[in-house]
Amino acid sequence: MKQVIDVVGVRPGKMVPWIDRLLEKWARWSTAQGWHGGGSGVSSLLLTDHIEIDHAVRLRDSPSDLMIDIDQAVSCLPDELRDVVRERYERGGRPEDKARALGISRRTFEYRVGKVHMALQAALDVGPANVDVLRVRWYAKRRGAGEIRFAA
């Protein structure tokens, strides 16, 4: 049964190490699939090599299921966050250059990477295919409130 789920966080902008490693593996996986650009569609996928991920792999039947969930979640991100995913995980270079390519400061770039991590952690905990709408909301002292809404 699909539903609406709210997840509230309080610290966007902080990187989540296991999500960072997972996104690096996802970027290699999606490139191997011939996809270039965050979140490329999740049907007709091939199995991948064994991928060890401490936290999330235990929640899925196989590593490729996990990659499919990540791909689906990334494809639901707002454009500005999908752009950050592309720059951070699919292109080489220094963080300053990646931020400049997006026309934002390095600090804003890192803050958005943290928002991506928070949103994907929530999406993976719930399972992107299990909900019609997943809202990830937060309040940050200096930046105010915000929300990322994943919709099926």
TrEMBL record:
This is Uncharacterized protein. The lineage of its organism: Bacteria, Pseudomonadati, Pseudomonadota, Betaproteobacteria, Neisseriales.
